[in-house]
Amino acid sequence: MSDQILVSAVVFSDEAGRILTVRKRGAELLMFPGGKPETGESSEQAAVREVAEELGVELDATCLRLIGEFTAPAANEPGQDVRATVFEHPWVRVDSPRAEIEQIEWVHPSAEAANLAPLLRETVFPRLRNRHRLGTVAVFTGSAFGNTPEFAQAAEVFARKVATAGISIVYGGGEVGLMGVVADSALAVGGTVHGVIPQSLVDGEIGHSGLTRLDVVADMHARKSRMAELADGFVALPGGAGTLEELFEVWTWQQLGLHTKPIALYDVGGFWQPFLAMVDQMVASGFISSRFRDSLIVSEEPDALLAELARWRPQAPKWDGSVDKD
């Protein structure tokens, strides 16, 4: 087995879907901006520092979103492999390269370019080409299994569908109950699973140690905020009070216009029908607009649910004066 070189890399996309690549002086192949972490640096810190040095751009570390970890032959070190933690960051303006960078070039992932480093050509670009419109979905579900095997079976099917569609999962970071089923099932088919868990639950030994990435945060509030930042959409599977709390919060934020991301209910065995009946009563009683009830995606089929998530378009927020309130 060859030695592995650890690096952090960052993907920037423009409106045409092209990816920013760089070529270092004396090198022939294009690669992502990034480089090797210094002693004591996290992957995110290394990515931010390297991009500043190479491109003169100061990134917001909170906007970095994990795509995954990838291994490929190193571009400039024969006989060695590079193991890259690859993030994506919203588009930034790059005027000219700095440091050892001689060239920058925007390349579409579907382009047949011969001058790409193996990391790009063999691993990351294929992932980007096959990626679903939703890059990352937040999954809310229970830390118990429920009283019927149907719940765990459905969670496994759903997680595998998500992972094989090229969608990353962010969830609460636990290894117990349906949470653990979701994580293990996605990982089993090569998916990317990002956990976010409070320190108190790590101390309680329910954190999942085998995830692509596990962020330990201060408390439950920080957990929900971080998951919401990372997600492009939300899916609630069967669960208990914690699942309801997470669901209600992101749904309320959606109504207020604090985010414009889709929310779906995976209605395993009609699990969410009592909840929907309660919401219908809220609508009938004049406490919720029917358009916010209609904004919820409900499906028993994972494929249909993912398709609806991709097609979803946001409603006007609650206090938008251009919309009649009902």
Automatic annotation (TrEMBL):
Q: Which domain of life is it from?
A: Bacteria
BP GO terms, sorted: cytokinin biosynthetic process
Nudix hydrolase domain: residues covered: 2-130
> What do the Gene Ontology cellular component annotations say?
cytosol
InterPro entries reported for this sequence: LOG, LOG_fam, Nudix_hydrolase, NUDIX_hydrolase-like_dom_sf, NUDIX_hydrolase_CS, NUDIX_hydrolase_dom
Q: Which UniProt keywords apply?
A: Hydrolase
**CDD domains found in the cross-reference section:** NUDIX_Hydrolase (cd04690)
Q: Name one Pfam family in it.
A: Lysine_decarbox
Any one GO molecular function term: hydrolase activity, hydrolyzing N-glycosyl compounds
Its family? Belongs to the LOG family. Belongs to the Nudix hydrolase family.
Question: Per its record, how is this protein called by name?
Answer: Nudix hydrolase domain-containing protein
Q: What is the lineage of its organism?
A: Bacteria, Bacillati, Actinomycetota, Actinomycetes, Micrococcales
